[in-house]
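tool_call predict_complex ligand=adenosine-5'-triphosphate
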Amino acid sequence: MNAPQAPTISFRELRMEFPRRRSRPLVALDSLTLDVGHGQVFGLLGPNGSGKTTSVNLLCGLLRPTGGTVLVEGIDVRTDVTGVRTHLGVVPQETALYNDLSAEENLAFHARLYGVPRAQRRNRINEVLELVGLAERRGDRVGTYSGGMQRRLALARALLTRPGVVVLDEPTLGVDVQSRAALWDRVRRIAADGGTVLLTTNYMEEAQALADNLAILDHGLLIATGTPEELRGRLGRTFIDVRTARPDPALARLPGVVGVSWHDGVASVAADGSPATIRTLLDRLTEQDPDALLVGVRRPDLNDVFLSLTGTALRDRGQA
Ligand SMILES: Nc1ncnc2c1ncn2[C@@H]1O[C@H](COP(=O)(O)OP(=O)(O)OP(=O)(O)O)[C@@H](O)[C@H]1O
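tool_result ok
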């Protein structure tokens, strides 16, 4: 049997506080411990302000943690940031491309800056432009590119050094559906070729489509990890959505019911899916509210997981 491989990225008890003028420091990340294995797409999923970009900035050595550490291929970011960066290709949220230069010129500049040997530069640039589907537009000024094309070029730039680990911060933020599909396709290909991808996102759909494993962050806390399938499986097999006044929490104690969340006037009940459970639930809901309206019966998705877990995390922290 092969010995298990050490993780590519290890976050260990990572904590980041930002000082504030008139109040206690803001805890952007609270004791994050997480391993990312080789050759997978790992998604950091969470709402705005949950600590995703902070995690990425700590990983790249752009921020110094208040506590804990990050290791990339066993190298500690705090003591050898240059060593860590040799393994990383990063696509930041702000693409920071030179708009007045062409795609090719942007890449040539980056290749020189990051020490790609002169003899290899032309081939590498051709290779990454092909990979992101921009070979035809290589000579055009980047200022004339669409947002999605700029994102693809930023990915090409990150791949120039053939890094083992590619980090993408919100890769498809503000990107149209076609470019999104193209980017997803490239990301999958990186992992299929043996690379490790860490991406942050607050799109459930993106996490579902791309991630082999997920970590869900909320207010700087890690609230769940697992494959998308495992996370959805926590909520039973069926979701029953009913438009109603705020439901009685006692519903959650009915046999066959896994949990109840309430959002935008719709109660979503996670249940085992048996007809008896569904019947009892609907009876109870209409007893409570004669105007209750069944919206649908469906499989839970990651959004349901997030809503239910966020409620739990807030309660755990005594804030609910
Ligand atoms: N340089 C900074 N100084 C002060 N506070 C910061 C700084 N960077 C981030 N924060 C705060 O830390 C928290 C986490 O921010 P972060 O950018 O990591 O969230 P995020 O999950 O990436 O959000 P988004 O999806 O909006 O990008 C937020 O409350 C944010 O305001």
